Amino acid sequence: MKKYNFAKKLYVITESAISRGRSNEFVVKEAIKGGAKIIQLREKQWDKNKIKKEAIKLLKICRKNNVLFIVNDYVDVALEIGADGVHLGQSDMPISEARKICGNKLIIGLSTHSVEQAVKADKEDADYITIGPIFKTRAKDYTIGTEIIKEILKKIKKPLIAIGGINKNKINKVLNNGVRSVAVISAVVSAEDVEEAARELSQKIKNA
């Protein structure tokens, strides 16, 4: 299996609808300059063909900069283009099925929204687990708060990444609960200065 150290990483997820008209390529390049170490292509409104074309472009940028590249949802696309991994949600194909398809060629991440889901994911063949939404987001109208992080960390062994409404003003609350990596969308993608926004967050993660 691909081994990757998820500790102290800023994980940036694309969303072109909120990128102020800038391309994913631009945003990803700037985010990497600012210190992002994991990039995930996530465009829920796009069809698979468009995702694949975009993934090929972003993979090149990530390869050049030694940054991990993850495709959202599509195990087959991630495998075909040679991405590092795939990220799945609770309603996507089961981890066991994804693992059968990709073997050890892909890192697999799973989104979780409760202690129970995180503990279950820890026993499955996922390589890392995201927990959220920690704070309110545009897309999710519920939150699970920061306290849940400590509880999960006591019960799981796999890397845990916090996500959901995290920005420069809230990141310390998350890091103070013991999580060592954070995933963001709007805090970087919608920022006026993408590189600077990524740098501020990366610095806080490094200093935690």
Describe this structure in words.
The protein is α/β, with parallel strands linked by helices and about 210 residues long. It has helices at about 25-35, 50-65, 75-80, 95-100, 115-125, 145-155, 170-175, 185-190, 195-205; strands at about 10-15, 40, 70, 85-90, 105-110, 130, 160-165, 180-185. An 8-stranded parallel β-barrel has the order 1-2-3-4-5-6-7-8, surrounded by 6 helices. About 45% of the residues are buried.
Short descriptors:
single chain; 208 residues; alpha/beta; eight-stranded parallel barrel; 40% helix; 17% strand
| Strand order across the largest sheet | 1-2-3-4-5-6-7-8
Helix content: 25-40%
Number of strands: 8
Q: What is the count of helical runs?
A: 9
Order of helices and strands: EHEHEHEHEHEHEHEHH
Structural class by sheet pairing and helices: alpha/beta
Mean pLDDT across all residues, rounded? Answer: 96
Low-confidence stretches: none
Q: End-to-end span in angstroms?
A: 29 Å
Shape: globular
Question: Whole-number radius of gyration?
Answer: 16 Å
